[in-house]
Amino acid sequence: MDDMVHTTNDRESYFLNFSDGMPMYSNDAMYYQGDEARNHTRDMVKKMRNMGIKVLSYFISSRYNDNSDDDYAMNDFKQMYGSDAESIDILSIPAVARTMNNLFLKR
Question: Do the beta carbons of residue 46 and residue 53 sit within 8 Å?
Fold first, then answer.
């Protein structure tokens, strides 16, 4: 978070995130996932917004769009990113460009 650039009168800042959905990390000393990881991510996104940073996060699924597991995962994803969460076909460049343009045009 120390490296994030605050929005100022002279500069707008954006955080663009491409994710498989869930924050997760583990090693011999740590296991970070589930509610703890989702809540932490939500809190960090809120902190970025409070810094004036505009957020857009893409949920990239490895499954088909009509899969109920994707719906469940997207609900969790929205808990972290709220209205800034998008589920799109990453191979569709026009869809990615359209959602980014919508963010860049917000005032």
Answer: no
Domain for residue 77, yes or no?
yes
Distance (Å, rounded) from C-alpha 21 to C-alpha 69?
11
pTM exceeds 0.70:
yes
pLDDT tens by residue, 50-63: 999 999 898 887 55
Residue 55, SS3 per DSSP: strand
Residue 9 falls inside a structural domain:
no
Query: How far is it, in rounded angstroms, from Cα 12 to Cα 35?
Result: 31
Angle (nearest 5°) at CA 78 between 15 and 5: 15
Give residue-wise pLDDT tens across range 13-55.
Answer: 999 998 887 899 999 999 999 999 999 999 999 999 999 999 9
**4 lies in some domain:** no
